[in-house]
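Pasting as-is:
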Amino acid sequence: MSRGGKQSITDAIGDVTRALVPTITEPEMRQHVCEAFVASEVYSVAWIGRYLPERDDVVPNASAGIAEQTLEDVSTAEESPRAELTNEAVRTQEITVRRNLVDDPPCDEWRDHALEHDYRTCAAIPLVYEGTLYGVLQLATDRPRGFETAERESLAELGVTIAYALDDAESPANTDRDESAEAAEEMTEVPIEAEQKRRLYETIISSTPDLVYAFDLDYRFIFANDALLEMWGQTYDESIGNTLRENGYEPWHAEMHEREIDRIVETKEPIRGEVAFEHAEHGRRIYDYIFAPVLDDEGEVEIIAGTTRDITERKEAEEALQKSKERFRALVTASSDVVYRMSPDWSEMHELEGKEFIADTQESTSDWLDKYIHPDDQERVTAAIDEAIRTKSTFELEHQIEQVDGSLGWTFSRAVPMLDEDGEIVEWVGMASDITDRKEYERELEQTNAQLKRSNQELKRFAHAASHDLQEPLRMVSSYLQLLEQRYGDDLDTDATEFIEFAVDGADRMRAMVDALLEYSQVSTRENDFESVDCEAVLEQATENLRMAIEEREASITSDELPTVSGDERQLIQLFQNILDNAITYAGDEPPTVHVSAERRDGEWLFSVRDDGIGIDPEKTEDIFEVFNRLHAPDEYGGTGIGLAICKRIVMTHDGRIWVESDPGEGTTFSFTIPDGTGGETT
């Protein structure tokens, strides 16, 4: 038995094969087959239809797990989607499958039928023997990915066996007998039925993979089927009449079965057990066996009949499942995340520990997708699962999920395939993190960023407008004051002339500050992608822009080899120009000397601009990068108090850092970094 009490597909097919043995009539055979399929719980519905060649029709005449009246539209003579499945099996004489009958059915009636009878997938298996179609077997299962290749192959082989049994039951010896043969029938009925049963037994016993055998009361084999002879690696003649030991059984094994045979003779009760021993071709295998007494007319045991089934794969699967459960429990104990286990094709969730985030699942369930995954994300989740299965790679996805309290949450789910020795997936083990708070934060951050973007755009528009609106009155004030001085200068005394000069100077400085503020606002964000910028060319352009100041102060500006970086060329020119201008302005009485250098450190370029000027108080080096923060009075040194603040914004826009090192009277070194986005080139 497999998880949840269900049999494995192999066990179910084996039981159906054995159901053929005790049947007497063809209707009984069909009914026994349907009942055996449904009893396995692997299949929820089973029906068999008889093929009528004269009408080219399939008419259901046996079923289990389904109401007979619901089979009215499956005849090939009907025009319905359900009949199309049967039609295709008849036409191609191959197994046909329909999936997604609940989520994506061909018609609403089929969905209703699937929901009523608890299935999602259907298959029609043609019953063909030696080119003759005897009917169609239709099965339904709640497994969304049921009837994969291996299962279809096993069912196709079973279809041939059932067809043979039907052929035997419908043979001329048993059908179409007229009245003139009735007298003879009474004389031959028992031999005919015995012959029929014999041929049916022989066919099934020789085709089953189970071991079938019989002992006499001296522990000697009196029958062994082909499967048992293959396991021994012996012929029938070499084996029959031998004891267990003579057929190669180890002493302990032979003694165990001899004791069991003695007990059956004494109690007349069957015995069931498990044993492991060597197969001639396949090595050590594990078997489940049943010994049953065959009684004579006086009620005494005359023969011991036995059947043995190879359950190695099942036991290995059970051991693997137990190990998987142990791993799962260890993960649950060690992790604060949701932990879950899935079947190889994700059709079933074996187990889920929700950690109070989502509802627990302790038993296998096939409706996990609808239970846990939000409808908007189901298609994405399914597509990611299919790709992970196809490539046998890790499944990773962020998706919405229903939480324990019924509210909508977010999870990051990651599942790893567990592979067997042949590289086939045996199950998936996954973990899911609650990222609901992170997603909410990201949503709020997106809203904030959008608002910030709108605010920046409005700020730029305001800066342009303010610049224009402020510049005009300042130009007017300055112009009229200069005009006043020109026209009435001779009539003004010394104080009046000095007052006019102060006013004109103030207006000019105000205009310079407005220009600087506008420039400061324009470097608050980067609007375009960076490109490779040659810093040698940047320094050359900056010195050219300062040529008049350099010549006036007889300044000396030198540099080492400078690199190529990724950045905004216009902004980098402004950066170098403002720092050089600062060095020239605060050089003191001597001609200024400035040196520019660069070195690569830890994935970034460190630039240094060193001068020999008046220096800065170390306690004030942090303040000089703030807007309008001046260390000297305007009548001592000119400037707007914004130049170094612009430098800081440019460097930050380039994901760098800027700082200054200085002592009064010892000169100053401005340093800033630019990430190396070009692989370390220098020009």
